Predict the 3D structure of the following.
Amino acid sequence: MTAPFRYYTRVRYQDCDAQHVVFNARYGDYVDLAVTEFLRASFPERDPFDGSLEIQVVRQLIEWKAPARFNDVLEISVRVARFGTTSFTVAFDLRIAGTPDPIVTAELIYVVVDGQTWQKRPMTPNERERLEAGANGKITDHGGYYPIQT
C-alpha cells in the first residue's frame, strides 16, 4: 500500500490557550491547510484553485483523542475515503510528527459545485481519478520537520 499524502505544520503560539494547548477550533484550520496542499499535490500541472474545481464543505467531523501543544509539529495524513457522484469524503489523521498514534481524526464531506451557478455538479472522470490517486506518497512540509539537505 502506498503511503498517503502527508502535510506537516508547526503549532503556533496564537493557536493555543494559556496552557499552550491547541484550541479545539484550530483543528478545522489545520485540516483546511492540509486539504489545500493535498489539492496542490493532486493537480500539479495546474492551479487547483483556478475555478475549474469548486468545492464546498457540507459536513465536518472532528474527534479529539489527545492534545497538541505549542511548537509541536503536526503530521496530517490525507486521503479520499469515499466518492459519490457530486461529493467526496476526505479523511485526516493528525499526529505529533514522529509518533505512531493519531491525536485527532477528521472527516470532511465536500460537494463539487459549478463555479457560475454554485449548484452541485458531477465530478469529471479526470477529477475523480486525480482525487482517487490522492498524491500518494507526496509530502508538503511547512513545519520544518525534515531538515533541508545541502
Q: What stands out?
A: Residues 5-141 form a domain with the Thiol Ester Dehydrase; Chain A fold (CATH 3.10.129.10). Residues 13 and 63 are 22 Å apart (CA to CA). The first strand starts at residue 5 and ends at 10.
